[in-house]
Amino acid sequence: MLRNKRILLIIGGGIAAYKCLELVRRLKERGASVRAILTPAAQQFVTPLTVGALTGERVFTDLFDLTAEHDIGHIRLSREADLVVVAPATADLMARMAHGIADDLASTALIATDKPVLIAPAMNPRMWAHPATRRNLAILEADGITRIGPNAGAMAERDEFGEGRMAEPMEILAAIEGHFTHVGSATLTGRRILVTSGPTHEPIDPVRYIANRSSGKQGHAIAAAAAAAGAQVVLVSGPVDLPDPPNVHTIHVESAREMLAAVEGNLPVDVAIFTAAVADWRVADAADQKIKKGPQGTPALHLVENPDILATISRHPTLRPHLVIGFAAETEKVVEHARAKLARKGCDLIVANDVSPAHGVMGGDTNTVHLVSPAQVEDWPTASKAEVARRLAARIATLLEGQA
Ligand SMILES: Cc1cc2nc3c(=O)[nH]c(=O)nc-3n(C[C@H](O)[C@H](O)[C@H](O)COP(=O)(O)O)c2cc1C
Known about the structure:
Layout: E1 6-11, H1 19-29, E2 33-38, H2 48-55, H3 66-71, H4 73-79, E3 83-89, H5 91-98, H6 105-112, E4 117-121, H7 125-129, H8 131-142, E5 146-147, E6 151-154, E7 161-165, H9 169-185, E8 192-197, E9 202-203, E10 209-210, H10 217-228, E11 232-237, E12 248-252, H11 256-265, E13 271-274, E14 281-283, E15 303-305, H12 309-314, E16 323-330, H13 334-345, E17 349-354, E18 366-367, E19 369-372, E20 377-379, E21 383-384, H14 385-403
Parallel strand pairs: 1-2, 1-3, 3-4, 4-5, 8-11, 8-13, 11-12, 13-16, 16-17
Antiparallel strand pairs: 6-7, 9-10, 14-15, 17-19, 18-21, 19-20
Helix pairs in contact: 1-2, 1-9, 4-6, 5-8, 9-14, 10-14
Bound molecules: flavin mononucleotide (FMN).
Residues 12-16, 39, 41-42, 88, 90-93, 122-123, 127 line the site of flavin mononucleotide.
């Protein structure tokens, strides 16, 4: 599977850099070619000599290296690869990637590349849990970057335990192989795909609204993955705290009714994926002015049903997309409810996930989903939302090929 695949391995400055030597050996054994970039900090942990001996290629370390610029240079280096792997991805490298900082060869190659990027973060648990790293990770995942690990366990520092150990070389290898399995079939070039994402806000008055806990991370990741697989993507997003995914036409809406109008306004498409957590109800008569506290007592909210976007588009008389995919966020009997929803709404597939608070899916970075079709249920392993998105994009490509 990895024969003749070209991997650009970017090694960051963490203790786990030594594990990359093993990764290089395993990649080479499987027939991949590996070019390595070492950050200045990485060279404190492994030497260019050792890495070069194992890759069998020259190792790249300097941005301003005249010989390299004449010979291969940072732009070619970043493009002449099938996959860019960052391992260990330090907190610093993740921050620079998230913010587009290009101040050494590694970060410049990362912003110049047009290839998919897989990161294997490794850092102290406190660094991993820090709000800055959380923010950077959310940005990277929204940009469509895939992640493997980190794992929980003992740290190199004495008496430190927690989440932050780099995934083992064989796990990173499996993620690389997984990438090529999906990518092999995931071409969506020429397809028009519409994705909805995030919550909706239903106004009570001009300053108050009814909302839900959807973060939009999964929907945005799907839009990014579909675009990365070559599709022309329209994303209709409710209010979220995420950047617009790259190469995606993003339309921002607030309420369910606005979301439906934006969806209808962007048909026809080949595929519609309804990831948004649309409010089932809205306040019947939202007040024009802020509702004041007063002797009239507590206001009663009279709710009415919102339009059902998934059912409306699934049963559209003229513009039904070839493939309509719904999401089911359930807190119990996940698959049973998803099956019922599939039949009720008239869509082709339901991606069901358990959003009980214990699973941390709402707002979290991983997801455990079940793909429910009329014929079968597939249980997918827990993965990052970006990985779930990539797998879904690959599956859509296969399904569309089957329909052609
Ligand atoms: C002994 C030692 C171990 C370190 N391990 C890590 C690590 O595992 N993860 C990390 O994010 N930073 C680690 N750091 C800090 C990074 O080396 C530092 O942030 C550096 O600027 C990263 O540069 P780079 O991202 O360009 O490789 C370590 C530093 C030292 C001195």
